[in-house]
Amino acid sequence: VWRGTLARLRYKRTRAALKIIQCYRRYKVKSYIREVARRFHHVRSMKGYGKHVKWPSPPKVLWRFGEALQSIYHRWRAHELIKSIPPKDLPQIRAKVAAMELLKGHRADIGLHRAWHGDYMASNPDNPQSAGVFIPVTNELKRKDKFMNVLFSSHVRKVSSYGGVEVSSSRMCTKAASKQKMCMARAGKKGSFTD
Question: Between 66 and which of 38, 58, 105, 182 could a Cys-Cys bridge form, CB atoms 3.0 to 4.6 Å apart?
C-alpha cells in the first residue's frame, strides 16, 4: 500500500510539473506575440515603416517562428517601399539593383545617387558629336534584330591586359535578355563594358 501511494504521489507531481511547463511555455509564446504586436502596431504610419524598431528576442521554442515573422515583415516593408516609387522610375531602380548585385565588391561607386539614362549615346548632352549618327543606326538595328529599346549604350575605353594598349569603342545592350546578361557579366568581371 505504501509503495503504491508513493508512486501515485510521484505521478501527480510529474503531471503537475508538466502542466506548469506547458502553461509557462504558453505564457512565453503569448507574451512574445503580444510584444511584437505592441512594437509594430503603428508601423504603417511610421517613417521608414518601422525600420528602426527593435525586435524582441523570441523564446527558444519560437526561434524559427521569429525568423519567419521577420522575413514576412521585411517582404511587407519592401513591398510598401516599392509601392511608393513612381512607375516611371521602376525600370531605373531595377537596373540599379541588378548592377549592385553584379558589381558588389568590384567597384566602389556605380553612381547610385544619380539618375541613370541608359542610352547615353542617343542623348545630345552626353554625346553631342555623334548622337545624330547613332539614332539612325539604332533604328536600323531595331528593324533588323527586332528589339524594342536600348537598355544601355556608352563609349568605353578598352585596355589590353597584355600591353596596356588603350582602344576607344562603343557598347550597346538591348532588351534581349541574353545580351543584357552578357553585358552585365562583363561589367562585373572587368569593371567596364568591354570584351
Answer: 58
CA distance 106 to 116: 19
Question: How high is the pLDDT of residue 175?
Answer: 57
The set of residues, in sequence order, having a beta carbon less than 8 Å from that of 133 and lying 6+ positions away, is none
Name residue 18's amino acid.
L
Instruction: Give pLDDT, residue 68.
Output: 93
DSSP the chain: -HHHHHHHHHHHHHHHHHHHHHHHHHHHHHHHHHHHHHHTTTGGGSGGGSTTPPPPPPPGGGHHHHHHHHHHHHHHHHHHHHHTS-GGGHHHHHHHHHHHHHSTTT-S---TTS---SBGGG-TTT-TTTHHHHHHHHHHHHHHH----EEEEEEEEEE-TTT--EEEEEEEEES-HHHHHHHHHHHHHHSSS--
Q: Which three cell numbers stand for residue 189?
A: 568581371
What's the mean per-residue pLDDT of the chain?
Answer: 77
Cβ–Cβ contacts within 10 Å for residue 172, how many? 19
